[in-house]
Protein 1
Amino acid sequence: MSFLSQGFSPDIVRALTECGYEKLTPVQQQAIPHARRGQDILAHAQTGTGKTAAFSLPIIQQIIDEPKPRSRANVRALILAPTRELVDQISKNIESYTQYIDVNVVAVFGGAKMSSQERKLEKGVDVLVATPGRLIEHMELGNVSFANLDFLVFDEADRMLDMGFIGAIRTIMSGVVGHPQTMLFSATSSPQMNALAQDLLRKPKRVIVNAENSTAETVAHVVYPVDEDRKRELLSELIGRKNWQQVLVFVNYKETANEVVKELKLDGINAVLCHGDKAQSARRRALEEFKSGKARVMVATEVAARGLDIQGLPHVVNYDMPFLAEDYVHRIGRTGRAGQQGHAVSFVSREEELTLVQIENLIQQRIKRVQLAGYEPANRDALLVKMQSKPAYKDRQGRTNNADDQGNAERRLRLMRAIKNKSSKTTRLKK
């Protein structure tokens, strides 16, 4: 099915052709007809399936069909996304779709100068792509108005809930006048997600491309059981032995990311960092080095789990298992995109076995385990037997959408580390 068959203007089709778009992806085939009819949409689809075009192309065509003069601070279409990386990516995609038509696109997110964003907003905006936090700052300063908003999109809405943006979403909605056409896109589903959809959408058309909370069929999954203190060594071993040339590595803590990059460089493997302590310019530079092949490995925290579009990325490694099982789906969604083959590797320590079980239950798939000689974890079988006898093994909860949960988990882990370090120090003093 071609884009021309959907009634898009020749100028849009021309731009899409130059972008390498030939046929509609499944999510585009399902969502675009509903969106073109002005219906609200609730869509569940994996990352890398063409969601941006699915929700933005109908908006762009409607703006062309019903042009309205731009006026100070007024926004015609608002697209909300959870991270600056995703906002930047969406806005650039839409700019490429509109290169031959008069539709202006503005991106606002933290880490960039407010003044330059204010100047762009002052003229009026056809399509505004924003993170919730920075958008609220502009709302409070009177830089944006949603009095004439025609279109509203929530991309990666489940991630917004995970990051605690529900309050910000309510604040933004309080400034929306009337009932714009609303589309909500999510990679995973949950009761909280459904409740949000019920609040925001009117008689939505439901689009499901893959089974909810599933992973792409093009991704091969494998688990390496390993003790926590051997993970860095195992990562270097696999990259060297298997000659992996482009590897995205996910960790849970910034400190871990720094340590892993340092270790990789000592082993002669060029690696870059992407986490919250890095300035936006530094993160963008790291991504460009990784994409171009100058850096072989990029080590990232959860901040990079959404919005990174790395064409043909072959390998994703979960150095640390994610705090939420759903985040496993988002992390490995960086590979196996657009029908290409991908490889998802997870390092699982004895303490992370319960998380692995939760992930397997979520994706309804048993992940293959590979034991690399020399890296066998101590007493792993005994631990598994012990865990399976506990009620927590069966009753372990999934998504809570409580922004404090991850912080509490981090604080507990820091406390445990402090106790362990104190104990080790005391033991050395006694010796």
Protein 2
Amino acid sequence: MTATASPTGLVHLVDRSPQLSGADMVAALVPPPQFDGATFDSYRADAAFPSQQGAKDRLIAFCGAGAPAARGGFFRRAKKEPETKPGVYLDGGFGVGKTHLLASIYHALPARRKYFGSFIEYTALVGALGYQNTVELFRGADLLCIDEFELDDPGDTMVMTRLLGELVGGGTRLAATSNTPPNALGEGRFAAQDFLREIHAMASSFETLRIDGTDYRHRAVDGHAVSLADDAYRADLDAFAAAGTASDDSFTELVAHLAHVHPSRYIRLIDGLSAIGLRDVTTFTDQSAALRFVAFIDRVYDAQLPIRATGVSLDLVFPDEMLGGGYRKKYLRAISRLVASTLA
């Protein structure tokens, strides 16, 4: 019996080993495609949670405080207002629109030089260019937007607090999102008490805006991520491959491959795809592998790629002991995105 040939539009991510130069990383520091047109007007505040409208109004004022200030000041401010901090920090659960608001800041602020990236993209840039070269690259920038601010190890704490401190001292304004208030970053993940001075110094640069609410991805959707039978999985992937390029990988093999690709390169790993296929999904037993998968799903979700999968439902891949640990919020964010992506 002759094997059926795979559609020409089907690829395997495990065969890809993308490279990313410092110049490529800098060029990528713009909002994800789904937020290209994000504005404050298009942010739909949930009336049941007044903090959403409150944060939106405060951020409009933050952006309307004036064009980048002349040398010696952060930005214009109205007379009689108390001194304003150079950064805003959006703290809230997943799915309340923090990234939409962050992208709205990026688009609305009248700035000559501005950058938008995930926390991991900035730390990867330091790794690629070196600390001092990264400082020089961003020196004089008007705005740095940092999405999903996460401190998972002491090294990242030191690097980011030093970098932001130097940039704020030169007049750069900051906007960041996270699921954790800045004073609590690192708690439950490493010995945060050893880094309190650095964490508090960073927090002092931000005005924290709490945004309450429910995950908008689940407002009209309940249940698990969709897990397909083999025939349905193959039919869906063939359809995606006929119209573009889809990936098809064993879940276990892809997770192992992610260990050999720096997370900053995950965006290139999925370059040109129209869908992701994962066969025989299983539950994680290794936390490092689980966290790499979270970073991968962040990039998949940013690219708005649908996921098709077989095996264990993707919202069940993180066991209870992981969900009860210090990375709980990361895993819950990933589950939210996985459910939405399998329904896309």
Protein 3
Amino acid sequence: MRLMGVGRRYGVGGPWVLRGVDLDVPAGTLLRIEGANGSGKSTLLRLLAGIDAPSTGRIVDRPRTAYVPERFPSALPFTALGWLTHMGRVQGLGRAAAATAGRDWLERFGAGGHARTRLAELSKGISQKVAVAQGLLGAPGLLVLDEAWTGLDRASRTVLDDAVRDRVAAGASVVFVDHDPRRLAGSAHAGYRVEAGRLVGAPVPGGVPAGPRICIEAQAPPGGEPLPAGLPGTPCREPAPGGVRLTVAATHSDALLRALLTAQPPWHVRAVAALDPGIHEEEPRP
């Protein structure tokens, strides 16, 4: 999935909430989004999920997507299981399969006893469990989570952590926002921050998986060509003098170097260095 020059504003002539967003979301990746309240991060997640349409730019190759909003609309004429069965059918499951999946996820989150409770009568914590179950029951190719852990008890947060890792391991993409900087630390492949409506690719806590990491400094070819799309390992990016600094898990570093050096036109790799002990640091490359 790719966002190209995406912007969003509400109302004709209204202020821009987001502008100039370029983002690749490869399959099998976990991306963390951070930003202050009002920065535009929830709007970005709604664009990723297809809830909102961009005011400018394009979003292409969106897979089948599930979205868990920050606030679950509980005033709906369904029971908990009825809602999950309905949403499972929307996501392409048959009625029986949707009901079975919905019941299974309610049990996993310790909410099986509320299957026949009407949504409007659920507590906030149980409502949030229903909202999260809704996002997981159809095994989506893209899962978008906006503060989905808020309101969950400790055991349910662990269940959601594990479910996110399982979706990524199965080849899906997950994009999430959470107020806890420790959330899924060491599991995310990249982190981004939304600042004043712009997406900044600077590393954030948990932005690169734990373990050996490689930092690559590269200079753009003449003409200021942008970085190639879909870089291996979805590296964290930050500005460097005359170029960019890319941080990636060591397992992706060779593929990332090849992508930079074989781009048309090629990028000039100025230095490659290990960021973790135990890996031999390489001399700057010409």
Protein 4
Amino acid sequence: MTTTTLNKAGDAPAGNAGFARLSATLFNEFSWIWGGLFALFLICSVVAPGVVRPAALSSLLPFAAILAITAVGMTVVIQQRGLDMSLPGTMTIAGLLFAKIGFMTGSTLLAVPLTLLIALGIGIVNGLLVAKVNITPIVVTLATNAILMGAVRAVSGGSPMTAPAELAEFSHSKLFGVPMTLVLALLFILVISVVTKRSIAGRRFVAVGQNPAAATAAGIPILRYQVATYAVAALCFAVAGMLFTGFIGSASQTAGIDYLLPAIAAVVVGGTPFSGGRGSVIASGAAALFMALLGQMVLAFGAETSVQLLVQAGAIIVAVSVRHLPDLLRWIARG
């Protein structure tokens, strides 16, 4: 009798702990996006069914994938308490440089590494100015973006450039029926997620974002991680720029401008806080699809682009509010 009573008493805390772990997994700050995405699909199927038809989704996925790649880059920067406002310039100049180098050399295989190398240099400069010179990230990246947009005008001569045929073919190609842009987006998400969650370097990266002073005291070379963050982000933006250029068939002067707010919105809606450290590129990728689908639903109602921007801003506000819902539920449960 006594043993049974003790076991039951001992099992209760274990059961509560298991329930708490399950609740933390299902209802954490990154899991809400999946419920929101499912709810948005249901809403679209009722109010705008044309948006979720296979043909419409097929045309939407490549742009959602490009947005997801930019959101991955923005996520790692925000995890380091930064914000990369040079996304439009980096994305645009990458598309233009790829097209120009490709036509000048006659080789897209040479244009890809050269473009990525230039983007890497842009990211390293941003990272050094932020981490070494200690300039506010938004100031540094805004200045970089202004320089890059000036370079865009110089490179393009004021007119769009036709994308190389090889890039256009690659951007429209499919792998086992899946758009190649989506395959690359999933690859970016998978690699960065595994590195940040499963490797020693990833754990140090999170530690630097959470508390740089404590990371320094622990002997972690924070300068290396902070600079690498902006370098990775620039590479993501450059890849997105090249894919976008190939998909639309030309390198325009405004290719990246329309991706800045949606990329930030995707990160925020995905649950990554601006306080640094915590973050999920998987949730940001899902949020990119959410934002793309939301934009299509708004356009299906005949709304102007300005309304779409208002909806994106509203999504950010709602996402920040929903993030505090688990705390509210726990408070109610304790009460």
